[in-house]
Amino acid sequence: MFGITPSARLRSSPYYDATVAAGVTAFTSYNHMLMPTSFGDPEGEYWRLLNGVAQWDVAVERQVELTGPDAGRLAQILTARDLSRCVPGQGKYVPLCNHDGILINDPILLKLADDHYWLSIADSNIWFWAQAIAAERGLKVTVAEPDVSPLAVQGPKAEDVVASIFGDWVRALKYFWFKETSIEGIPLVLARSGWSKQGGFELYLRDGSKGTALWDLVREAGRPWDIGPGNPNFCERVETGLLSYGGDTDAHTNPYEVRLGKYIDLHVPDDVIGIAALRRIHAQGPRRHQLGVLLDDTEPMALGNLWHDIYQADRRVGSMTNGVWSWRLQRNIGFALVDAQCAVGARVTVLQRGLARPGTLAALPFI
Ligand code: THG
Questions:
Q1: Helix/strand/coil percentages in the chain, nearest 5
Q2: Which residues line the pocket of ligand 1, CB cutoff 6 A?
Q3: Does residue 57 lie in a domain region?
Q4: Which residue range(s) make up the domain with 165?
Q5: Number of domains in the chain
Q6: If you take atom 27 of ligand 1, which residue's CA is the nearest one?
Q7: What is the structure's pLDDT at 362?
Q8: C-alpha count within 13 angstroms, C-beta hemisphere, residue 241
């Protein structure tokens, strides 16, 4: 088709050479970096994630590092999730909002020490945001990007693979908790996390010159479990209801519309960005909500990541924000961002490039 031109503006991952050697066939751009999106066998990669173990280059989940005496204050100002009981070694999923309560990112926060945090971000620029807020509020904190590159190991066999490398202590690690460690001179942070519901870990490599070494080490250790290359899996994440910031959200989306209300603590201090707006939105009730949509057709169709209009009778009620053939459900499924009055079970029509696709609104997650 056509090539891509890496540059300082489109950074390669430390795992780039390793993923090319592993047969990567497609990339996307995310946080101004290249992320593998296929190794040429979508269905095989899906079943490997469900039944085995896969290793993913997710270095695009770049870190925003907060260091200094006010690092904790800044972290709490940036998110309306209560961090007062978060301790070193603990991670949390923390929606970030702007002053209007609009979702601007959904990172994993890692608290390394009382004065040291990472925000492992989705696809939007949080360095500028955090630097601006820190400066405007006169905080004693440095906002920077450390040399850190996550490698995910996902699937039901991931724990056996990771335990065979680091030891059985990893089996006791709780979800989103992490430990600083190293293997064969490769420094990393090992966390139980990852963008799938099949279980697994993320190895946050702390030395970008050792990407191939870490990739190869995991691949060799995973051989007994038939590990293979993969990437955040579109089908699995839609089936299990994982949100893609920027994919399933637009410039008007608040956390309550996309099932993140449980991560918003309305009692956080008044200086938290967006909290006044979030209290107001919560009191009024959001105008839209996120459901699933199950299409009637029983043949796979190319729905992709584009947004498609959803109609109930003759009225446009919202958008289908993603769509994929589900190998487990044997149906085309996706997320619907629709008017709050639309209920599970309602019949709808999705307009895909002029074609009317009938379907039914469903609860999320599908599986
Ligand atoms: N790993 C790392 N950084 C990331 C992601 C990741 N940054 C961007 C993006 N992914 C963040 N988005 C999510 C969204 C959901 C989850 C993880 C990252 C997730 N959610 C669970 C769920 O919804 O069931 C549990 C959340 C909870 O209850 O606390 O795992 O993948 N490093």
A1: 25, 35, 40
A2: 61, 93, 106-108, 120-122, 150, 193-195, 202, 242-243
A3: yes
A4: 16-62+148-237
A5: 2
A6: 93
A7: 98
A8: 14
